[in-house]
Amino acid sequence: MNRRKRMLNDLDQDIRDHIELETQDNVARGMSPEEARYAALRKFGNVTRVQEETRVVWSSGWLEQLLQDIRLGLRVLPKSPGFTAVAILTLALGIGANTAIFSVINGVLLSPLPYKDPKQLVIIREHESLPNVMDILRQTRAFSQGGGINVEKMDYIGPTEPVHIRVGSINAGFLETLGVQPMLGRIISPGEDVQGGPRLATVSNHFWQNYLGSDPHALGNTIQLGGNSYTVIGVMPASFAPPAEHADVFVSLMARDPRSGAERDLHFMHTYWRLKEGVTLVQAQADMAAIDHRLAEQYPAEEKERKSQLIPLHEWLVGNVRSALLVLFGAVGLVLLIACANFASLLMMRAVAGRQELVIRAALGAGRGRLIRKTLTESLLLSVFGGAAGLLFAKWGTSLLLALRPEELARLSGIHMDTRVLLFVLVVSVLTGIVFGMAPAWIAAGADVAEALKKSGRSTTASTMGHSIRKILVTSELAVALVLLVGAGLLIKGFSRLRSMNPGFNSANVMTMYLQLPKTRYGEIPKQTQFRRELLTRLNSLPGVQAAMVTDIPLGGNYVGHHFVIDGRAPVAVGGEPKVQTLSVMGDYFHVMQIPLRAGRDFTPLDREEQPLVAVVNEEMVREFLPHENPIGARIRWAGDAGPPQWMTIIGVVADVKHLGLNQPTDPAVYTPFSQSDEAWRRFMTLAIRAQDTSAGLVEEVKRQIWSLDSQIPVSDVHTMDELIAVSLAQQRFNMLLLGLFAALALILAAVGIYGAMAYAVNQRTHEIGIRTALGAQRRDVLRLVMRDGVKIALFGIASGIAGALALTRLMASLLFEVKATDPATFAGVAILLALVALAACYIPARRATRVDPMVALRYE
User: Fold this and answer.
1) CA-based angle 128:134:140, to the nearest 5?
2) Integer Cα distance of 682 and 516 in angstroms
3) Is 18 helix (H, G, I), strand (E, B) or coil?
């Protein structure tokens, strides 16, 4: 201890000598004596502070030393506001973007489902009929419970106008399988879930609040659904929602529609199953295969092609978005790496600039570990502050993600900042501070004491090594930025091609809205036909309006299929007939939607009830089932029809329409007139209205015309066809926008990184540049000297990025549409863009270097 005190006393005299010499040099440089003294004191003033701190540290333990370092860091960082702000902002951007994406992944992929023992829940991918559900429950050895649901819209008389609500028709085991108890009342019992059973309803919390006024005494009240009265017996908790489809009310299928519930070939229920304790998915799949075999033998007409596939419920819910979210998380992780590289580069510059203070500490006896800990403490403080600021960015970013979310993004209610997200931020912040602060701390703590104390010691080993590491960091930033830019470019190109796909119809100036005729008043086909004709007549009389109807509008997400038989073909085994998409239409539908007619003729008013049955098919139907022959005049009928064959004559061929999505293949389709349909259950329909003005005024006028015919028919799902196309592209747009945003952020951070590295290099070489200029170097020579280093870094970074992109973009091949993951044009365009940005970032400090005054540079310290 006495030796260290003597060292402090000796150092006091050395410091005074240095201050005097520095004052004299400043006066020689042209400063006034007062200015010269002030500058010298500022330069060596930190030494006195170091002495005082050293006295405290020598008399303290490791905990006191750590607290001392934290207090010192909190005092020192505000004294460098520019450095501190840039470092915190850089980390906040990287950590905030990662936290926002992690919040989505946490809510969608990681959080458990809000059901009892969710890992035991599985679904059958294929839809089932209610008789199938009952047979599976009787025969299974793998499932303890099971149930199904079919959600459809029904009319409900609201407080101001009739509305559609979503009614879930279930069997008694559905809610029990999920293991969710009602908040009030009870659920439907097995004894009530029978043909002719009472019409009972368990309502959702949303329905209870919005339509029943949150009345705690609502149990026993009667509500009108589809023209029938239902008694409310229960209210579900606010946290409950069916796994796949939202439903406002749950009713017994057998009590609501016993005919549909008894139809074995009516496969329209999503089914959910709970595995018995100890049963694996493999065992359950084998049990299901045995049941499939028995049902196919027993009911060949309806079940011949049964091949049920079991999927864990969680996997089924998130499977469509898992790959996209993981790609985005990987992309935002690369953004964090770029931000961390910039952070490390900033710490490196600060460490080299402040190496004299560390050398003084070393001279006073501080060991290398002590110096590293002191520097790491500042790094950790910055990273923690960056993480805290990142939480603010993450909150804003999560709101943005939810605003941009596609409808397919499941479990939106689970996306929020919870303990897992906060722990993620803490871990990322601490790891960032330690991992990316270690190298600068190690280099700074290893500076040569004697050399650093020399007045002319400009290029220490630490600064030279730091310069090399900064080059590596900037090169890595450019490489990572190129990978992200290539990924974004591929998605943008694929989305552009997807958006330019011809949907098969003209979406401009077309308004659509959904109607459903109540069964109690329109159960017979003649009444349905009369309503449709009268409504179309009224709508077509409106100025500038052309209207038509269709069962399922293109891109509406619905699909109705039928097995069919072609006249003159060899008989096919029952249940093995081909299947087509079927659409019933009325009015001048193909003209209103501007679907081109390729052959034959369109429907006319003469194609009506009691006239020969006719059909129009699409081109895919002809290519797949009637190739190399004239389809006009060919006859088809629906398979399984009872009674004499009802043959339909093909009278026309229309262009293919993208019904399920622009990126989905076109299915064979058959169009038939509503008036010739013998399917009374097709009471649902969508209006397609082409008009010059599709504003809200048109919608209100159409509603008035509908309600003038029947005041209790709700109108819902009012959209333009352009909006439906946009919705169908929501997932692709979401992926493209986010990856594009991350790529732009990476590009900005990489540009800042290379600019900072080159600016610092120019600052360090000011003396050298002054000498070269004094010896006759021209401005272009100085410009070339500085730019040469920047170009080398840029080219090596771009080359490394191309290699990385070739390897990593293959992981996102499933997200691309008609674009290869190795698309040469995208790679070349991105490389040129990044090169131009890098050159611009290098040019600014290089231009500044050409303006250095040689006399000032020669005196530069």
Assistant:
1) 95
2) 9
3) helix
Cβ–Cβ < 8 Å for 374, 396: no
pLDDT interval class at 457 (50, 70, 90): very low
Report the C-alpha gap between 25 and 35 in whole angstroms: 12
Residues belonging to the chain: 861
Residue listed under structure tokens 């969508």: 686
pLDDT at 3 over 60: no
600 secondary structure, DSSP code: E
Q: Are 584 and 558 in contact (CB under 8 A)?
A: no
The 10s digit of each residue's pLDDT in 619-643 is 999 999 999 889 999 999 988 776 7
CA dist., res. 534 & res. 548, Å (int) = 12
Condensed to tens digits (0 to 9), the pLDDT of residues 121-178 reads 999 988 899 999 999 999 999 999 999 999 988 888 766 778 889 999 999 989 999 9
Question: Alpha-carbon distance 717 to 165, whole Å?
Answer: 11
Q: Measured between alpha carbons, how far is 597 from 617 in angstroms, rounded to an integer? A: 10
Question: 194, 254 in Cβ contact below 8 A?
Answer: yes
What string of DSSP letters covers 97-119?
HHHHHHHHHIIIIISPPSSSSGG
What are 785's two structure tokens?
A: 């000297």
Do β-strands 716-720 and 269-275 pair in parallel, antiparallel, or remain unpaired?
Answer: unpaired
Q: Which two tokens stand for residue 140?
A: 């299974």
| CA-based torsion, 118, 121, 127, 132: positive or negative | negative
Q: Enumerate residues 6+ apart whose C-beta is below 8 A from 131.
A: 262, 263, 264
Helices marked H in 299-353: 300-303, 313-353
In this structure, the number of other CB atoms found within 10 A of the CB of residue 828 comes to: 11
Separation in Å, CA 510 to CA 542, 558, 690: 15, 19, 4
Q: Is 101 exposed, middle or buried (0-12, 13-18, 19+ CB in 10 A)?
A: buried
How far apart CA 40 and CA 17 sit, in angstroms, is 11
Cα–Cα distance for residue pair 132/271, rounded to 1 Å: 10
As a whole number of angstroms, the distance between CA 601 and CA 331 comes to: 53
854 vs 845: CA distance, rounded Å: 17
pTM here? 0.75
All residues at 6 or more sequence positions from 696 whose CB lies less than 8 Å from its CB, including other chains: none
Q: Residue type at 143?
A: F
Q: Is the pLDDT of residue 241 over 60?
A: yes
pLDDT category at 35 given cuts 50, 70, 90 is low
Confidence tier at 646 by pLDDT (50, 70, 90)? confident
User: Which residues lie below 8 Å from residue 767, measured CB to CB, with a gap of 6+?
Assistant: 458, 857, 858, 860
> Rounded to an integer, what distance in angstroms lies between the CA atom of residue 172 and that of residue 170?
7
Amino acid at 559: Y
Residue 566 CA, chain-centre distance (Å), reads 45
Amino acid at residue number 507: S
Task: Measure the CA–CA gap between 481 and 743, rounded to whole angstroms.
Answer: 7
Q: Which of 707, 575, 487, 531 is nearest to 306 (CA)?
A: 575
Beta bridge partners of 671: 583, 616
Q: Which of 34, 213, 244 lies closest to 148 in space, CA to CA?
A: 244
Asked if residue 57 lies in contact with residue 65, where contact means CB atoms within 8 angstroms, the answer is: yes
Q: Which residue intervals of 500-583 are DSSP H helices?
A: 519-522, 525-540
CA pair distance 664, 608, nearest whole angstrom: 33
Q: Which of 279, 265, 248, 319 is nearest to 145 (CA)?
A: 279
Q: What is the pLDDT of residues 793-812, one digit of tens each?
A: 888 889 988 998 888 888 88
3-state secondary structure 602-671: CCCCCCCCCCCCEEEEEHHHHHHHCCCCCCCCCEEEECCCCCCCCCEEEEEEECCCCCCCCCCCCCCEEE
3-state secondary structure 697-732: HHHHHHHHHHHHHCCCCCCEEEEEHHHHHHHHCHHH
| Exposure b/e, 674-693, CB count within 10 A at least 16 = b | bbbbeeeebbebbbbbbbee
